[in-house]
Amino acid sequence: MAEEESAQERTERASPRRIHEARTKGQVPRSRELTTALMLLASATGMLVLGGQMIRGLEGVFRHGLNIERAKIFQESALIETLANTTFEGMMVIAPFLMLTAVFALLSPLGVGGWVFSTDAFMFNWSRLNPITGLGRVFAWRGLAEMVKALAARGHNVKVWPPFTSAPSILVTPDGLIGAADTRTPGALAAGY
């Protein structure tokens, strides 16, 4: 029964055993907002500190890459070599910035849940391949709401009524869409024709 209760209804803290089990399964708190904010801050600081150096370095790479001897222009192998060298030089110029963002991308999730490595995330879960569950997600209310918003944004006159059956259908005609429902089959999925 405790597993069925939501997190908002629980009044006591999790036991140390439960916390340990959750960590071994890789279930630790994560904050996308914290990671995004730290990445944005690191990128802005990196651009502020390294931006001028990167611009000057990339300018030199472009000057060097576009200054090709006439004899090399007609040699395919020389052009490929020049392209490879220019690409490598450009990557070396922006490497400090890339390293800074990579470090913050790896370290910022540690601020909330710590470093956790769990092999449970790699385990194959057959229940995730259930097509009925997938169809349920496709025909969920959220998907319907997104479709209504998209149609309304394109200028279609959309009217929404509460559902009175369980099997709505949409008929596509040259004149437009016609909606219908079958009240005889409770629990059926939506169908398009």
Please describe what this structure looks like.
The chain is mainly α. It folds into two domains: 32-113; 126-192, no CATH class. The chain has seven helices and three strands. The chain has helices at 16-24, 32-66, 70-73, 76-107, 110-113, 131-138, 141-153, and strands at 168-173, 176-181, 191-192. A three-stranded mixed sheet has the order 2-1-3, with no helix packed on it. The chain starts with 15 loop residues before the first helix and ends with a strand. The mean pLDDT is 77.
What labels would you give this structure?
mainly alpha, about 55% helix, 3 strands, three-stranded mixed β-sheet
- As a whole number of angstroms, the C-alpha radius of gyration is 28 Å
**Main sheet: strands, sense, barrel:** 3 strands, mixed
List low-pLDDT spans.
none
Measure the end-to-end span: 44 Å
What does the secondary structure layout of this molecule look like, with pairings?
Elements: H1 16-24, H2 32-66, H3 70-73, H4 76-107, H5 110-113, H6 131-138, H7 141-153, E1 168-173, E2 176-181, E3 191-192
Parallel strand pairs: 1-3
Antiparallel strand pairs: 1-2
Helix pairs in contact: 2-4
